[in-house]
Protein 1
Amino acid sequence: MNGYLEFSNKIYILDTASVAGKMESEGRLGGLFDFEDISNLFGMKTWEEAESEMQRLAYNTLLSKLGTSHEAFDFAISGDLMNQCVAGSYSFSNLPLSYVGIYGACSTFALGLAVGGMILNLRRNSRAVTLTSSHYCSAERQFRTPLEYGSQRTPTAQWTVTGAAAVALSGRRENSDIFIKDAYLGRITDKGIDDPNNMGAAMAPAAADTLISYFKETGTQPSDYDMIYTGDLGAEGAAILTDIMKNEGYILTKENYNDCGCIIYDREKQDVHSGGSGCACSACVFSAMIHKHMRAGKLKSILIIGTGALMSPQFLMQGKTIPSVAHLVHIVKEEGEEEKRI
Amino acid sequence: MNGYLEFSNKIYILDTASVAGKMESEGRLGGLFDFEDISNLFGMKTWEEAESEMQRLAYNTLLSKLGTSHEAFDFAISGDLMNQCVAGSYSFSNLPLSYVGIYGACSTFALGLAVGGMILNLRRNSRAVTLTSSHYCSAERQFRTPLEYGSQRTPTAQWTVTGAAAVALSGRRENSDIFIKDAYLGRITDKGIDDPNNMGAAMAPAAADTLISYFKETGTQPSDYDMIYTGDLGAEGAAILTDIMKNEGYILTKENYNDCGCIIYDREKQDVHSGGSGCACSACVFSAMIHKHMRAGKLKSILIIGTGALMSPQFLMQGKTIPSVAHLVHIVKEEGEEEKRI
């Protein structure tokens, strides 16, 4: 098995846009999102409608940033955590974009970038937009308990990010010098975790598997990248990943590795337990922070490993465990004529 | 907007395998499926586990037909109707294949073939397997009412196919002369239908939109193909599609058009109302019938348009309508040195 995908043309990231809720605006990236709504409702009546509206807002903000309209894009790739992935399918309803629905739980952001790359490899003169979202309130009532129950959360629990992010991809350079070079699609790993409040432990082995497979395939080491970001393992999962990688001979440190779930909130001041999670976690951290650092030249070659717990409340009630998957995307900034590290 | 994808190498269909339940085995294609279980449980305790087991059985049957093992495949592309698409993620758990989760409701089969094509366009020496499934009992209790209620079904209602099918794709010819030439990914159409028992009406406009877009893009007509198959519009939706197409100047007749939902059951003898539906409908009809006809040379150039109602029971309860999408795949049989019709 080999999930490596090298794009034969560079897949350029033209721009990104992000939308976030109250907890996120009060977190460490507060003020860096393009749109923040402390009501978490985004003008809608239900949490589910609010999540779909966030995707629409992220997409519209992206169009506005690019100074363009729907017609500039041929393809939309979207996925989210809600049953039937409705955030995307309702936000793109009746819009003139071909729609590719994907499902990868919290690995969706990375999977979307990879699928966008595949499409633009076939359609080099086209643009695609990838979107994802999650909402704390729609996720809690779907996956765990309705918020009104006021359930006590365990220390390993993660806080689903209320947010959405959109990324504009192009098969041509246009005005961007940041591109997706290659990707690695992961396999499904299930080590027997059955606690929906400890997703970090379920996902860490999948992240390790994908990361190690990618290093072996490309003959690289963690030190070959400016930073490695996992999607949302949280503090618990990130510690487990660091341990697994160390046992395999790969050293992850604070200097070369961080987890988007540990970045987005201020865990000392906010009651988010193990950190952030949800499809929007890595998507919003990329849009609000990582992409800006790359533009500024602070980061030139990074790996993002989206990690997804493919858990089903129904299957957990039927006694099953939580399978997980991790997809990796390698994003690079061109350095003038000569490109280093790639 | 243009969702056309032409594969630069031919994406060969090596073989297919199908699994089906009681109603399907008693239908018009009974005996043509590779595995039939009239208990609909496939050795499992719950309908959901049964659906996941069907995907595993279809995949294992495919491996057996090809005389190969997991190692022959690098990628699995799967999607289904169950929340969190669990049929695929549990059946591929801990297997050594990179896993791409997709969501397109009943358009999943066609979307999976298209995504498989994208991957093998980048990885020409690899193989991918695409899978999908649906189960009448898991679908009814998730989307409509638990079977135990004994609800009366309306004449426009469709019967979700209990089945699964797997398709082996390769970037190389190997021993196959049947390949995917091109595809068209559709946009999301919502004409305001809000009746979960009339999905044909919701999906027909999406099918028309994709089909007409494809004809215009390729400069072809229905008569350029041996057959056009829609995924599962049922009798109701197929009649609506035929009307829409006629108004646009494209004539669909019994000789050049059929719907997989009208093929799989015997509507005169079986109480399936408007016909079959579910992700497995087009997948099983392709595996059990269409692919066999292509192998035998009866069909040499066909279009399959997977149609998906991206409906959410929760959003319907919140007063929303049913968005739909249709994805098209063009499958061709090589005719010796000279290939006609392509």
Note: Chain B touches chain A through 64 residues (CB under 8 Å).
Protein 2
Amino acid sequence: MTPRTGRRPGKSGSRDAILDGARASFAENGYDGATIRDVARRAGVDPALVHHFFDNKQKLFVAAVEVPVDPAELVAHILAGDLDSIGKRIAYTFLRVWDGQGGTSPMITLIRSAASNAQAARMIREFVSAEILGRITRSLKVPDARLRAALVGSQLIGLAMLRYVIALEPLASASPEDLAEMVAPTLQRYVTEDLPPHR
Amino acid sequence: MTPRTGRRPGKSGSRDAILDGARASFAENGYDGATIRDVARRAGVDPALVHHFFDNKQKLFVAAVEVPVDPAELVAHILAGDLDSIGKRIAYTFLRVWDGQGGTSPMITLIRSAASNAQAARMIREFVSAEILGRITRSLKVPDARLRAALVGSQLIGLAMLRYVIALEPLASASPEDLAEMVAPTLQRYVTEDLPPHR
């Protein structure tokens, strides 16, 4: 028999309804278009309850899509330090987080969704633009910060595809430290070195 | 009424049966495990007919999976030239081929399959290992050629994911030339410069 905890049954029911409403709203409206108000309406609750459980849209997305880490924290960690060593900090943080997830990580699921479903791709693109690239762009005192952040992202997502999703050797079995050292100069160049002239 | 062409109906029927058999065999056995003999058996034809239509396993794969370019040709083009400018040659070739495909390219379909389906991932991984990385490894006179080729692949597949599949700005709208110039030094470093010590 399930022990009675004294918890009101409505609470977790509301929380689950909010998460369901959030997934539907993000899928339909993208990250930019979704609102706490729309999520609350779908869940049949007051918007204040959504704020109570999840604080803001970013945290609601992280919970609803089961992003296993808080991107805001990671970005803060990466930006807190010398710009001359940011390439290493990004590479080590990225590989440590992914390797820590194990084989069937929610992040692999995210990459799979983004690759196979246009709605998911839009939702993830808008989230990454607003909450990851946006934060980095505002903090980095370099020209073309958004382009630089996207180039960094291209190296990281490609590494994740080959190492974790496609499992291509020798990338799949390399140690995270070895790989971090190999891609760190690439990331450093994208963040701080001169880019070629472009439109 | 369909005009009679005098063509024997068996011909294109056999060709299609071979392609169907090839897709089934590659999916079930991977690229390494599939054989012309098994494909012929599935198609109910003589192995000689498979060779007649498709020459070898590599070309059969390219046709069956609708790879829109011949990787062997691309690799040959990239390797035919000065090693000091191989980064640019890879970047320009890659972006030119992808941009030339248009929005719903079979290569996007390939990436989607690899991301969402373990059988497809294995098949593509084995094909890329044998026919692309293998060729490059045999030709490059550098240590760690396989690792270097895989690192190059990680930058390229990540660029393709963000530019073509997820359509992240500003990568999605950048000119192919601008992007090629930005990633070329990364590719050049992976191919010819010293890698950090590793196991």
Note: Residues 9-33 of chain B form the longest helix (25 residues).
